[in-house]
Amino acid sequence: MRAIRRISDALARRPDLVLRLIAAYYVLAVILRILRSEALESDEAEQLFQSQFFLLGYGRQPPFYNWLQAGVIQLIGPSVLAISLVKNLLLFLTCLFYGLAARIVLRDQRLAAIAMLGVIAMPAVSLLAQRDLTHAVATLFTTSLFTYAFLRTLTRPSLWHYMLTGLAVGIGLIAKYNFIIVPVAAILAILPEADLRRRIFDLRLIPALIVAAVICLPHGLWVLGNFTEATAGTIDVMRKDASGNAVLDRLSGIGTLVLAILGSALPILGFFLLAFRRPLIEAWRAESQWTRVIGRTILLCLVAVGIIGLGFGATNISEKWLSPFFLLLPLYLCLKLDAAGADTRRSIPRLFFPVAAVALGFMLYLALANVIGPRLGQYGKENLPAGPFIEQVLAEQPGTRPAYVIAGDIFLAASARLKLPDARVVQTGFRQAPPLSEAEKTQPGLIIWRPAGGNAEIPAHLKAYVAEQGIAPENLSPRTLAVPYLFAGGRDNVLFGYARIGGASP
Questions:
Q1: Looking at residue 128, what DSSP letter applies?
Q2: Which residues contact 310 (CB under 8 A, 6 or more apart)?
Q3: CA atoms within 13 A on the CB side of 131
């Protein structure tokens, strides 16, 4: 209790400690992710596999996060560290720019620290991102950067601040397509404010638009040539479980939107109520120019999502799609408190400890779940022993390492990248990748898959791909290997299949 009291007193005296503690939290997140498991979640596996290529488009997701991830892997090699480092660095920068944005519009600088803690209080940040998010994390970062640049431009207009705003918009548009809603809503939100409205008609907006356009142009040209590929996946997810009845499907979509709004807003409101209690309720009627601007922005973003959902006949709108819009909610609440002149002297520790308990508790849960789950017969993606399987296959022929690997799914492809960093990895579901070169085909290769029903036969889609490469599938000798789940103590196994190309069978 004495240690907690010391931390509480220090936070009350020095709000700047909050940023340092947030930095420590993300360093801890990287360390725990490395220790947690060598197996990967879905988005992590996709990033590790796709980091082999610098492409203008990667299917339904824009390329910003992929480019960052590929760049880091080029520097330090494919690893769980590289995967975790990019994500948690972006999350830290999200908090940093958010705090800088809050300082621009808040008189009470304690509230700027509280706003950063409010970011950690978001389920998308403290829960979903620590489990498995990538492109959504990039959107949080670009939304935070845009908020800082936009507010700085409104309060201290300069060519640099306009261009920084253009940079944020450009990066945001190649981070995730729903980001476009944020700057459009922000511009509409300042229209009723006469002194802010002038910033829209400033000539310095032109170079800002040029900066954004230059950043977006390469990917934009790719989208024009691959429009179906860029949009079909997202539309399919939005229309998941569609019944075919246009009215019922749209009502279902609005219902999921309402639930997503509640799921995003209530945790943040709950944490703020713990910290401020009655003053937060009393502050609800307080108003300033900035509460109006940020409040309108949030509302316009949600209205835009509803209109888009109705237009596409969406039946499913998830919380993570709303995360860039609700990123503004902690700032909005802090602006309300600031306008009301609320007493914030003890508010930082009152918010810090509950938020820290949830954030750290969830990271601990993720680590323990990998160990406890197998004892209960429950296995997650981080229990998949794809890495040990590949190691055993390589150990059969110590002097021969495949030059390329053809993987049956994204998890095997990612594990192949980890275990064979110099090999070219192919995943048949990702057709944007360059084909195997003639030089690669002359070298030893490896096919890996997870057999269905214990059948050792090579799956049809892998046979078709191998045939496209000029390799006769009938000449291959498929084998199977049973490998224990990670952390299962040898109790349960996973069956894998493999076949060598151009090498002698063991």
A1: I
A2: 250, 253, 254
A3: 14
- Two tokens, residue 94: 């999200």
- Which residue's entry shows tokens 């939107």? 257
Rounded distance between C-alpha atoms, residue 198 and residue 185, angstroms: 16
| Secondary structure (3-state) at 406 | strand
Backbone dihedral angles phi then psi of residue 382, each to the nearest 5 degrees: -80, 5
Helix (H) or strand (E) holding 338: helix 329-340
Tally: H helices and E strands in the chain: 24, 5
CA dist 285 and 101 (Å) reads 23
pLDDT tens column, 63-111: 999 999 999 999 999 999 999 999 999 999 999 999 999 999 999 989 9
> pTM value?
0.94
Per the CB < 8 A criterion, the answer to whether 349 and 275 are in contact is no
Q: Are 78 and 72 in contact (CB under 8 A)?
A: no
Three-state SS sequence of 67-82? HHHHHHHHHHCCCHHH
Q: How many residues does the chain have?
A: 506
Where are the domains positioned within the chain? Answer: 16-360, 381-501
Let me know: does 300 contact 188? Beta carbons within 8 Å. Answer: yes
- Residue 500: strand pairing partners: 446
